[in-house]
Design goal:
This protein is of the alpha/beta class. The protein folds into two domains: 147 residues, Rossmann fold (3-Layer(aba) Sandwich), CATH 3.40.50.1970; 215 residues, Dehydroquinate synthase-like - alpha domain (Dehydroquinate synthase-like, alpha domain). The protein is built from 13 helices and eight strands. The strands form two sheets. A six-stranded parallel beta sheet has the order 1-8-5-4-2-3, sandwiched between helices. The chain has a two-stranded antiparallel ribbon with strand order 6-7. Helix 3 crosses helix 4, helix 9 crosses helix 10 and helix 12 packs across helix 13.
């Protein structure tokens, strides 16, 4: 490891329980907070508002965000918080809202409280924000010197959220294992923090493969279950712990680089982040020459309706030009795929490697389906 590991393990307080938002007065009383700036999106507030206390001693100042987490938007929220003399900023929504509130809290030097309305990522746990420009294009990410004061998870809100976001969150969190493992397993005598990250990543895989399908069924029936709660906590908490303890050894590798490469293809623009990462996991495994794990994952992918071949992303082997662009985008110099050390000659993964892996995966999928058909006939 060329750089020291910095542990940013957890928010100061974390709650996941039914009715937690109705206890806001009690939760904030020890801190003397009176004026709470609530930053939210339109749909997120519609989903969360019924869970907030109907009568409260707090002054809840509402501010709707502008749709993107930009540095200018973070400054706007911070300025509004100061103008309204807010004591704390509470974010209600998905990843972009939560990232925005963390950034605004840093600028305003105010504590932040995060109430996720989607179980689609670990943004509620991590002390960092991903920034975009006004057109929604990624620009940079910033790690803050302190974590949020509280994370308040009301599971019933996530239960009623759009199911595709849960499915995508499961896929994105499943990648925690494959991306952390390919980085950590090459470390001799890993520190305790890295071991914790590795164990948390493995926990992500175990719980999601065990309970992922049942969590989707719970969301479809709108019946809160232990499986559903375990899955959303895995996405938010265990997923956040991988990077929180592992730092750069527990973040991203091949799967997310493939996601970034896929974004050059217009056909993938309507697919959620986690869906493209799901396909990226399989490409990473092919690059690692771990075909057995690809075959082991395919039944889970099919049950979860995750893309496992080009057709599932609206792409085709015949579209040579697009596949080349995807491979080139995946292997840009700044991409995390270069953190992987999987080539026998020690060289970095290049665009042709990714291009060939795409074709190899198509063949593995065909072979797996052929095996299934043959076993059914027998």
């Amino acid at each position: 490891m060329s750089e020291p590991i910095i542990v940013r393990g957890a928010p100061a307080l974390y709650y996941c329980e039914t009715g937690i938002l109705s206890k806001l007065d009690t939760l904030l009383e020890p801190y003397g907070f009176k004026r709470v700036l609530v930053v939210h999106g339109e749909h997120s507030w519609q989903a969360a508002q019924p869970f907030f206390p109907q009568q409260t001693r707090l002054t809840l100042l509402q501010l709707r965000y502008n749709g993107e987490c930009t540095e200018a938007e973070a400054q706007r929220v911070a300025d509004y918080a100061h103008a309204e003399q807010a004591d704390v900023i509470l974010g209600v929504g998905g990843g972009k809202v939560l990232d925005l509130v963390k950034a605004a809290g840093h600028v305003a030097q105010l504590e932040t409280i995060l109430a996720p309305t989607l179980a689609s990522n670990c943004a509620a746990w991590t002390p960092l924000s991903v920034f975009y420009n006004e057109d929604g294009q990624f620009t940079t990410y910033t790690i803050f010197p302190k974590s949020s004061l509280m994370v308040l998870v009301e599971p019933t809100i996530s239960l009623h959220a759009p199911i595709p976001y849960l499915r995508a969150g499961i896929a994105d969190t499943l990648a925690k294992w494959y991306e952390a493992d390919v980085l950590i397993r090459k470390v001799n005598n890993p520190s305790l923090a890295i071991q914790i990250a590795h164990h948390a990543a493995h926990l992500c895989r175990s719980i999601l493969l065990m309970h992922g399908e049942a969590s989707i069924q719970a969301a479809e029936s709108k019946q809160l279950s232990d499986a559903f709660i375990q899955v959303i906590e895995t996405i938010i908490m265990a997923g956040g712990m991988v990077g929180g303890y592992g730092d750069y050894m527990g973040r991203i590798a091949g799967a997310h680089a493939v996601h970034n490469g896929l974004t050059v293809a217009p056909a993938t623009h309507d697919r959620l982040h986690g869906e493209k990462v799901a396909y990226g996991i399989l490409i990473q495994l092919v690059l690692e020459r771990n075909e057995q794990e690809v075959w082991d994952l395919l039944p889970f992918y099919k049950k979860m309706k995750l893309p496992y071949h080009l057709a599932g992303l609206g792409l085709s082997l015949e579209d040579h030009e697009t596949l080349v662009q995807i491979a080139v985008g995946t292997t840009q110099p700044q991409e995390s795929i270069h953190l992987m050390d999987v080539k026998k000659d020690g060289s970095s993964i290049n665009a042709d490697d990714v291009y060939q892996a795409i074709f190899k995966l198509e063949g593995l999928v065909y072979e797996a389906e052929d095996r299934i058909s043959a076993s059914v006939m027998i």
